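Quick one: structure for this chain?
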Amino acid sequence: MTMPQEFTIIFERGASGWWIATIPEVPGAFSQGKTRQEARENVLDALHELMAARRELALRERSPGSELESLPMGATAP
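Got it. Here's what it folds into:
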């Protein structure tokens, strides 16, 4: 099984005219910007921050004796 190697960004115009950007594959990954490009940059920053926070929380709460493995994006199952 191959993992997805890309994410989708959905851009929508908000009521105030700002661009709203959402990454549907990652719940909680969303942001906004005055321009589409700014919204893109902001949602990518949000994605990185969200993933780092989730990693930190998971590492802090993991069971004693658990093992870790790094999984690069695009990795395939053995």
